[in-house]
């Protein structure tokens, strides 16, 4: 089966990269057997981004390859090394691409400005390593957080051609020939009846105004009910500033005339909806054919009256809006081009100033601290307490359930958030099933409240008593400091407030034996030596 070159609708499945897991590591080097946690964080996963490329006109690349996935983040490593971030995937789309969620129908982005971007799925956040989880009360975490999975979504890309003027009419009315005559576009034209199968774009210059013109496959009566190509291509003129009816004045089909053709096409546009505010022009085409010229002359006044009084009354300003033209001889094309330019310039003047470069992103994850608790039944019909909320669900995804300390950390976080208190307030009993998350993807566990009324948490998760132990040198230094302070305090007993302890110590060392004997109960210990206030000074040593 041949792959078409023009595709204006495609379904694309995109997967963002997963976040890398955090690392559990303890720093080790000579003389520092327990240097503290040094596990790095995992890298964030890559996102999938759509970006407008003005040089593209089709979605054929996504028709050929409809699955795209960004790279995942790398896990953290020891020695304070964080994992590498996953690379984003930037997908180029043509201007006028509408992005919707294929499952919910939600409109995600409407990309028509050059270089506009939309983040369709966001990569998962990398997990924290035990270095980032350490604190003054949790000095040696023996766990790390897992990386979050990246988002996954199926989107529908729908191209709506961005043009200033749209040409509508019956098949073989001369729309493609008109574009070829007023621009350098070269759509397929021939001297036998056929209809365009893909939209054609042409750039037209009229004076100092440059604008684009697009034609769509021909409409027939009953297109709104599925006849012919239906309304499938009318979306390409939704963004047009003006609409030009191309009427075939030389048709041989019975029952057709310019007035009847206009009414039929306008009825189809009304059935499609959303185009009633566009100004209209009418091109009575093929006046180079003798019968066509006669019919155009006869219908000119009636078509103008129908346009001003019935079909487009809002833009009836007395200026000529019906033009007999010939795409073969060029008759009337100049006046038609300048009429188009006048409408486009007026609509551009009414449009607001262009906005700066726009980057659209999904709704942030984890905003707010809200959660809900409700009693429901699971797939087997058993009663379960279901907890829903951005934070509890994200914390659950980050938890390594093979690590008891990580489970305890999750329990602590849920307790601080108030989940446990809410469960108790609603009547949950120890042993009840509690599910965090939606549907079958929920994490289910038995409710075991940590805190009872009046009780206190006896310990802090992540403490390691080995980190509290002192090295021998530090113990000796602290012992000497304690002896020194004790000796100083003993020497200053009975001394005046303004006395210097050094003078007091000197007097005690130089005091005669009888003065020292008066203080038999005083024993002063100095670091490095001992002096006894009782007996001869030679019995002890002085520092």
Description of the molecule:
By secondary structure, the chain is α/β, with parallel strands linked by helices. Helices cover 25% and strands 20% of the residues. The protein has 12 helices and 21 strands. The strands form 5 sheets. The chain has a 6-stranded mixed beta sheet, with helices on both faces. A 5-stranded mixed beta sheet has the order 3-1-8-5-6. β20 (523-526) and β21 (529-532) form a beta hairpin. α4 packs across α5 (290-311). The radius of gyration is 42 Å and the shape is elongated.
Write the layout of secondary structure elements.
Elements: E1 9-15, E2 48-52, H1 60-64, E3 67-69, E4 89-93, E5 97-101, E6 107-111, E7 117-121, H2 130-133, E8 152-159, E9 165-168, H3 175-182, E10 200-206, E11 209-215, E12 242-248, H4 258-272, E13 280-285, H5 290-311, E14 322-324, H6 333-350, E15 359-360, E16 372-377, E17 383-388, H7 390-397, H8 404-417, H9 419-425, E18 433-436, E19 443-446, H10 472-491, H11 501-510, H12 513-517, E20 523-526, E21 529-532
Parallel strand pairs: 1-3, 2-4, 7-15, 9-11, 9-12, 12-13, 13-14, 17-18
Antiparallel strand pairs: 1-8, 2-7, 5-6, 5-8, 10-11, 16-17, 18-19, 20-21
Helix pairs in contact: 4-5
């Amino acid at each position: 089966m041949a792959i078409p070159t023009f595709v204006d609708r495609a379904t694309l499945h995109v997967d963002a990269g997963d976040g890398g897991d955090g690392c559990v590591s303890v720093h080790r080097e000579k003389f520092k057997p327990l240097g503290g946690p040094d596990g790095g964080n995992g890298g964030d996963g890559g996102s999938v981004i759509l970006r407008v490329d003005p040089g593209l006109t089709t979605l054929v690349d996504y028709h050929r390859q409809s699955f795209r996935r960004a790279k995942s983040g790398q896990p953290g490593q020891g020695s304070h090394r964080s994992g590498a971030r996953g690379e984003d995937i930037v997908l180029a789309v043509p201007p006028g691409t509408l992005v919707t969620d294929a499952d919910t129908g939600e409109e995600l982005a409407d990309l028509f400005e050059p270089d506009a971007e939309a983040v369709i799925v966001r990569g998962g956040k990398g997990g924290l390593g035990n270095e980032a989880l350490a604190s003054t009360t949790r000095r040696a975490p023996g766990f790390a957080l897992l990386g979050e999975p990246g988002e996954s979504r199926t989107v529908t890309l729908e191209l709506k051609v961005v043009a200033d003027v749209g040409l509508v009419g019956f098949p073989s009315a001369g729309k493609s020939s008109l574009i070829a005559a007023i621009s350098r576009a070269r759509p397929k034209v021939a001297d036998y009846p056929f209809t365009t199968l893909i939209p054609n774009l042409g750039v037209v210059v009229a004076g100092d105004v440059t604008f684009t013109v697009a034609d769509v496959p021909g409409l027939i009566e009953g297109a709104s009910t599925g006849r012919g190509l239906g309304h499938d291509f009318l979306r390409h003129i939704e963004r047009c500033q003006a609409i030009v009816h191309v009427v075939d004045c030389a048709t041989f089909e019975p029952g057709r005339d310019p007035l009847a053709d206009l009414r039929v096409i306008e009825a189809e546009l009304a059935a499609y909806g959303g185009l009633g505010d566009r100004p209209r022009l009418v091109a009575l085409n093929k006046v180079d054919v003798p019968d066509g010229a006669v019919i155009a002359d006869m219908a000119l006044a009636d078509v103008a009256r129908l346009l001003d009084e019935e079909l487009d009354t809002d833009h009836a300003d007395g200026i000529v809006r019906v033009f007999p033209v010939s795409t073969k001889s060029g008759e009337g094309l100049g006046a038609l081009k300048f009429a188009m330019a006048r409408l486009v310039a007026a609509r551009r003047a009414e449009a607001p100033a262009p906005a700066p470069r726009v980057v659209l992103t999904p709704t942030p994850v984890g905003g707010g601290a809200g959660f809900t608790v409700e009693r429901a039944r699971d797939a087997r019909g058993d009663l379960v307490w279901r907890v829903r909320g951005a934070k509890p669900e994200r914390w659950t995804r980050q938890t390594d359930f093979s690590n008891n300390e990580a489970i305890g950390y999750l329990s602590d976080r849920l307790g601080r958030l108030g989940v446990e208190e809410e469960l108790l307030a609603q009547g949950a009993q120890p042993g009840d099933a509690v599910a965090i998350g939606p549907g079958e993807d929920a994490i289910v566990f038995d409710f075991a409240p940590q805190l009872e009324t009046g009780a206190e948490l006896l310990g802090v998760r992540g403490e390691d008593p080995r980190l509290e132990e002192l090295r021998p040198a530090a113990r000796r230094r602290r012992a000497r400091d304690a002896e020194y302070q004790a000796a100083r305090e003993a020497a200053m007993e009975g001394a005046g407030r303004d006395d210097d302890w050094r003078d007091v110590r000197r007097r005690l060392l130089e005091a005669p034996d009888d003065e020292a004997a008066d203080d038999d109960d005083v024993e002063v210990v100095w670091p490095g030596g001992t002096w006894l206030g009782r007996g001869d000074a030679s019995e002890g040593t002085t520092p």
